[in-house]
Design a protein that fits this description.
- The complex is a heterodimer of chains A (472) and B (471).
- In chain A, 39% of the residues lie in helices and 14% in strands.
- Chain A has 15 helices and eleven strands.
- In chain A, a hairpin with a 2-residue loop joins strand 10 and strand 11.
- Chain B has 471 residues and is an alpha+beta fold.
- Chain B has 15 helices and 16 strands.
- In chain B, helix 7 runs antiparallel to helix 8.
- The longest helix of chain B has 20 residues.
- The radius of gyration of chain B is 29 Å and the shape is elongated.
- Chain B starts with 8 loop residues before the first strand and ends with a helix.
- Classes of the chains: A alpha/beta (472), B alpha+beta (471).
- At the A-B interface, helix 9 and helix 10 of A face loops of B.
- Bound molecules: zinc ion.
- The site of zinc ion (ZN) has 8 residues of chain B, from loops.
Amino acid sequence: MASINELIERIHADSSEEIVTEYLEKIEKSKLNAFITVAKESALLRAKEIDSQGHDGPLAGIPIAIKDNISTKGIATTCASKILTGYIPPYDAHVIEKLKEAGAIIIGKANMDEFAMGSSTETSFYGPTLNPWDTTRVPGGSSGGSAAAVAGGEAPLSLGSDTGGSVRCPASFCGVVGLKPTYGVISRYGLISYANSLEQIGPFATSVRDVATLFDVISGHDPRDSTSVDRETNYSSALINDVKGLKIGVPEEYFAEGTDKNVEKSVRDAINTLEELGATSVEVKMPHTKYALSAYYVIAMSEASSNLARFDGMRYGLRTEDSDWHTTFSQVRAAGFGDEVKRRILLGTYALSAGYHDKYYLKALKIRTLIKQDFERAFRDADVLIAPTMPYPAFKLGEKIDDPISLYLADVDTVPINLAGVPSISLPCGFSGGLPIGMQVIGKHFDEAAILRTAFAFEENTDFHTRQPEGS
Amino acid sequence: MYENPDGVMIGLEVHVQLNKLKTKVFCGCSTDYHNDPPNSHVCPVCLGLPGSLPVINRKAVEAAIKIGLALNCKVEEHTQFYRKNYYYPDLPKGFQITQYDFPISSGGYIMIEGEDGEHRVGITRAHMEEDPGRLVHEGTIDKSKYTLIDYNRSGMALIEIVSDPDMRSPKEARRYLDKLRNILEYLDIFDGDLEGALRVDANISIMGGQRAEIKNISSHKGAERALLFEIVRQKNVLRRGGVVVQETRHFDEAREITLSMRSKEEAHDYRYFPEPDLVPLKISGWAPAIKEMLPELPDARRMRFVEQYGIMDDHAKALTSERKVAIFYEEVAKIADPKISAVWICDVLKGELNYRDLTIEAFRKEDMLSVIELLMSKKITEDGAVDIIRTLLDKGGSPEEIVKEKGLLKVEGDIVSTAAEEAIKENPVAVSDFKAGKEKALNSLVGSVMKKTKGRADARAAREILLGKLG
Ligand SMILES: [Zn+2]
């Protein structure tokens, strides 16, 4: 699979138009259903423009897939929901503006779980995305389309969003690299909120280097997002193939019962590899991990119940037969939202309502504080933490979709990171029965440099990331 | 001491639109929409488009702090926004960004002219929030086949000012509103004349009973009427042996009655929680700096007028009860005699403006100066001066032209003298009556002189001249 550098060389030798055309053909022939909308015309038009006028941006002429919950001016943005039928945003998200400045070409909008609610991309109104390694399995979620597109060679780069693991889970299941940055590092302006206190946009690529390049393009301060931080960074310069003296913390709670044996072995082997390269490892205690899942779902669903209130059919999206506004709102929302979205809105509404607010929402916030403290303590002894991204490799399509609790449990190792707001990168570290296994390297707040360096060094000294699914 | 026989307790919630800010509270849209087509001052943020995020307008925070300080509140060093969740077509996000715990200011008061003199009304809190859009109906609300929504107003900065239940009569409520509006205008953050600039909800209870909340009051007069009606209604309920229930009532401005809303909307659970898209606002250090720049407020200006210009407190109060009038007065008093200026602006001009439902902008200060100058140089009479002011308001023109057209110049002494001699000659009965000691008989002689001079004579001067000739 081509890296950014290889693509740039090819664009100089041939043209962006040729590259874009190749990817478009690949998408057209694909059975993965990684895309909801393919922006064929605008992508080709932009490629020709770049070919004729030239562009000196770091991603000039390179195609990229965008998760369909990121606002793209003039390109339908659906959140994989029926309720946004016909909505074409009049504005670009901050990250889209940045990508356009850098010369990147938006090739299409990637499939996802409806409103990013899920870990398998099966709740999409537009049907599930298939895992390129085994099309009977899920690609993970909620950014399943973004990860599958990169793993299946349908786009060299993509963007996802990670609320409770939605970048790292599909990166792990699809054998690609995915980063969830520190909360506030990438502007959320234009990211359609699911749970706004938890989520960040994150880059996907087939290598740590390309993830860092893409991350450099899309990160940075944006005055339109009050939670966006202002700090100078150059992540690509952190890519040093040297982990001597690095202290790795290993949180045993992340290898708890229910973790697949092969997953555990691969991650522990990876830690050994890094130790052989000069790092040291130490066990760290994160005692509140077992409460993270409940706290995460209460907070995420509470915020979602409010965030999704705006979808009422009055201004955009699905509109049913008009009646009085009460009836119309109900009809639009009943017809427009899928079951999982309705479940989370109802549970979130319940958790925030009078009489339950303190018992659920406030309690969840308290747990969130305790989990943050777990991380603060762990990082006193360690520079980075390493743990499995997912407790198991990709599961079968349909295997968990009718059992929401079991599906929620899959997020056990990813949600604490969002509650704490720290950065984490998932990268391939092994295979089990032909399916990729991912490990996550977790860092201190704003210390993306440490996790990128760790991931880069691991990648430079192993070859898991070079393997490709058949036919891609 | 005011007895408050019905045990009336009134608290007011006033929504003030910061319509003098250049932009809305969470986006860059212009606030100058009042003469523009619907939905022409909107953007992804104030339309609540998916993915848009709010960013606080610092000027709105400054204005909120100004208000807090002017209302003698404690201004916090940290403040936080919350979401108030409810569905309504004018609310594009399905929630309103407002404040809940940690409002920007609380615990203040203002002084009003109460039933028994100066009366203190406590301010519970003054917090920031955003305005929803506006629903527009074809014809009347119950006959309209559809509802149109105008989001120009959506996202306008509002300050909600909640009072303690300290007002004891509808009159006090009205005076509170007048005073509040006056203070806000002094702060220069608000134009009370624009549509929707000030909206009032009133809470009222009598005899220690449950309170009713009256919504949809859009004027000071309306507030007084709604409260008067509500007191009568609650007294009637008690007289019939009933109990006043806690409820929300709607004020029907046209019929001047309040109606129970009896709808599902009453049982709202707003599910407040902190707005995740706006980080807690650190405003330590803002308040002292803003306090330095706070303009002179009505009470301070009233005291200064008495001291500086030597005018009566009643006049000072009337002059400062509207910021524009106070400014008008000071400009006139800079040039003309301050006491005479106060008399003519308070006692004459304000009355004539009121009668015509006009504001001070309808009268030029140059004209006021000319009228006072004509009076001081004794060229016109007081009646003539009133006539000029009325004519200026009704027809326009200049005082000099009006004097000329209407022949208002005070007539010379010898003309009055001649008229007096004629009057004495023509009214022998009155003359003999006067000489017999009937003082009143002089009045008919003065009347006769005025008649002969067509009112241009100064009545006092005519009297003097008559006395001289008779005596
Ligand atoms: Zn706007």
